[in-house]
Amino acid sequence: MQGRILWFNDRKGYGEIECSKGERFFFTYQEIKNQCDYKTISAGLQVKFSKSRELLFDTFRAKNIVEVDKASVKGRVREKESRAS
Q1: Which end of the chain is more exposed for a tag (fewer CB within 10 A), N or C?
Q2: Taking CA 12 as the corner, what is the angle to CA 10 and CA 18, rounded to the nearest 5 degrees?
Q3: For residues 31 and 83, what is the distance between their CA atoms, to the nearest angstrom?
Q4: Which helix (H) or strand (E) is 53 found in, with range?
Q5: DSSP-derived 3-state class of residue 1
Q6: Sequential DSSP letters for 56-83
Q7: What is d(CA 12, CA 19) in angstroms, rounded to the nearest whole number?
Q8: What is the rounded distance in angstroms from the CA atom of residue 26 to the CA atom of residue 44?
């Protein structure tokens, strides 16, 4: 599946991904599989992931998360997440 990071709280280490169909998936930093430092994850980042059958907070979990274009992360100004704090 493919989607974008809706929000990510780098202090708590979790966030939410939204697909083009509007489905939302909860994820934790442990599910990020490439070499990216999870503290650089920001809202709007395009990712590919697998859907887990496990529910967490009434939302399916995303696993095996990989950035679609790792080069786009360099130099990006991080957006602060206020919703989850």
Answers
A1: C
A2: 65
A3: 21
A4: strand 46-56
A5: coil
A6: ETTEEEEEEEEES-GGGGTTPPPPPP-S
A7: 22
A8: 15
CATH level 3 topology of 2-73: OB fold (Dihydrolipoamide Acetyltransferase, E2P) (2.40.50)
Radius of gyration of the chain (CA): 12
Q: Which two tokens stand for residue 75?
A: 């130099």
| Rounded-to-10 torsion of CA 46, 42, 20, 3 | 40
Render each residue's pLDDT in the chain as its tens digit; 85 residues: 899 999 999 888 889 999 988 899 999 888 887 656 666 778 888 999 988 877 666 778 888 888 886 544 443 334 434 444 4
